[in-house]
Design goal:
The chain has 341 residues and is an alpha/beta fold. It has 9 helices and 15 strands. It is 33% helix and 31% strand.
Amino acid sequence: MLTVALIGCGQWGPNLARIFHTDSRSRLKYVCDLDDSRSGLLAHRLRGVTIARDIHQILDDEEIDAIVIATPLVTHYEIVKASLEAGKHVLVEKPLAPEFVQALELTELAKSNNKILMVGYVFLFNPGILKAKECLTTGVLGELRYIQAIRTSLGPIRFDTNALWDLASHDISIMLYCVADNPVFVSGVGGYFTGNPRADIVSASIKFDNGSMGFLYSSWIDPCKVRRATFVGEEKMLLFDDMSPFESIKIFDKGVERGDLLDTYGVHRMGIRVGDILLPRLEPIEPLNNECCAFIDACLKSVTNPAIGDLPLRVTAILESIDKSIIQDGAPVEVETDLFN
């Protein structure tokens, strides 16, 4: 049994509380928030859960094995550090920290204290993304050429971070999980249209060492909510659409092929191949439930998963590199390759 405390009862915290409260292998003891009305409402809905007035009540409680953190990004470093130093396992919402140097310190602190530090990259536990990874690993798509990820909606607009860190961090985690190579350089541009000092719109690209590419587009000011990733392989193509839950994965037997030489200039004719569309059956499992179960397994059974260890740290490194490129109006910025060896 894993005894858990939740810090942060805002938009996402209640979803995490629900799962840890109902899972037979965990016990949610505390909920905590700066806004007492939020924690009070959540504790009222979850029978047997106590309101913690501050995080020290949680940190000092020897019964607490793990702390789940769903607070704004700017608070992550201090709360995660205090939790690890108190001997608690940690599940923190993405990204890990607002600066790479902080993320590195927290990762090393978790290792030295022999504690689990897991980041809530929930799409790494999405059956659709797991299927995409399987198709890449088994060669169904052929050699990967690029991944294009689009993540847009009309709000919420945040003031503690930009659209890149808020939205594209998910897509970067997906790319690092699915692309079996190291990023070489990144490039990005941002748009500021709401009076927010943080970028509301970000377009970025990632070049990998094997020649494959990642393309990102994230926006807080789009009329449509889109959560889509396209995987283009040499043999086939795969579309992941999280807004289409019953057909979230489509595999297209399509491609571009070189044909015969033309009679003049020695130029190859390019052909378009169009075949069938496959709709794989996926298990109807809630990704967040998968994520929370994976955290429990990690704490109780030492079972690792992609959201533990270096991947969250690498995501932070890429986010910082893209931020640098945005400041330089899209100039390419090299990614620290030592992190990816």
